[in-house]
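User: Working on a comparison across species. This one is Late sexual development protein from Hypocrea jecorina. Can you predict its structure so I can line it up against the others?
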Amino acid sequence: MAKLAKVLASALALAGSSAATWPPNSKDCTTTASAADGFPTPNAEQLRAISERADGSLSNAPPPATLADSTLQSLQVIAFNEEFETAYFQSLLANVTLGVPGYESWKGYGKAELEKILKVIIAQEELHALNALNALNKFKKLAPLPCKYRFPVTNIHDAIAVAEAFTAVVMGTLQDVSQAAAAAGDAGIVRGVASVIGQEGEQNGFYRTLLGAVPSEKPFLTTNVGPFAFSFLNNNFIVPGSCPFDVNALGVPIFTQLSVEGGSAALNIRPEDQWLNYSADLSSVKNAAKFSNGNGEGLFITYFSGQLVPFSVPVKDFKWNGGKVTFKAFFPFDDNIMFGLSIASLTDGGNFTNPDAVPAATLAAPAIINVNDEF
Ligand SMILES: *[C@@H]1O[C@H](CO)[C@@H](O)[C@H](O)[C@H]1NC(C)=O
Ligand SMILES: *[C@@H]1O[C@H](CO)[C@@H](O)[C@H](O)[C@H]1NC(C)=O
Ligand SMILES: *[C@@H]1O[C@H](CO)[C@@H](O)[C@H](O)[C@H]1NC(C)=O
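Assistant: Here's the predicted structure for Late sexual development protein from Hypocrea jecorina:
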């Protein structure tokens, strides 16, 4: 999948209350390689223990006899993402267990309940990662091992808001994975990927409930593309250079970050039409130089929302500033009923017929925008 990208850049914006600065400084950097349970290379006994904690096991069906390179690339991004998720929830669990200020309890859930829920989720995410790693190892492809991570949160509210955001991004990305696998003739992985989409949806219903939003965000969840998810992870959560492999070796583009301003507001904006302020550093983006003397004509913010065909709005008040661009763009909430996740990209075209056409026209992406239907 040339398609997972930048979910997290924007997740930051989603985190509500204590506007954490981004990127976090080095003291926020955390490494996740907790070898206590053997992950990511458990022996048989350790795998059994992970499965018991996860309330279920890996599939015992034989793996497909062949997989297209594009599908194996998707599995690399899935492994990369699930290892990040495992690390994130381990960090959250540690904060809850240690009673770090800001992590004492949440909406009537005390320490014991949160610990129980997080332990199950961690083991489940480990099995999601192992499922992808096992296939990659079988086909002798680069099987990404965990990196060091940084998390843009210091309290449980923001931690849950960011988890909600990246989980929604992942569910959009897994749509892309299954679509691409089906198109490549790899129907054999689609059932398992679909089961993970539902599983992540169960998690997100809980996170959304904790945030005071209705558990189910939209009738049809927002889609995403692989390069945006991969960019999101790399630009927001991975300590640069910390991966035990070359992140560029996966062959998935890493776009420069598109940021949406407003701190907490951007993470969780009001359900109404509004203008949003965006910024990006285009100084080293190849197709961007031609916009250096202009007013942004020919540039658009393109949104993914639900299963709508991607739609684009022109950028306004465009300023180049040596490639560090700022501009505003309309967020057309009313016409498009944009509850839940929206994924924005800066593109040099509009009129896309499907999400897969967007990365080729993208200069910066993604920005993650969330609108909660609150109760
Ligand atoms: C756990 O707490 C540390 C210290 O406050 C913080 O840097 C980190 O982001 C927290 N992790 C999560 C997932 O909330
Ligand atoms: C966007 O920027 C303008 C000009 O700085 C400011 O007045 C406005 O409040 C900003 N809007 C948001 C949503 O941050
Ligand atoms: C999209 O297509 C319509 C109809 O052909 C055209 O008027 C419009 O300018 C196009 N928009 C973009 C962004 O290319």
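For your comparison, note: The two ends are 37 Å apart (CA to CA).

User: Helpful, thanks.
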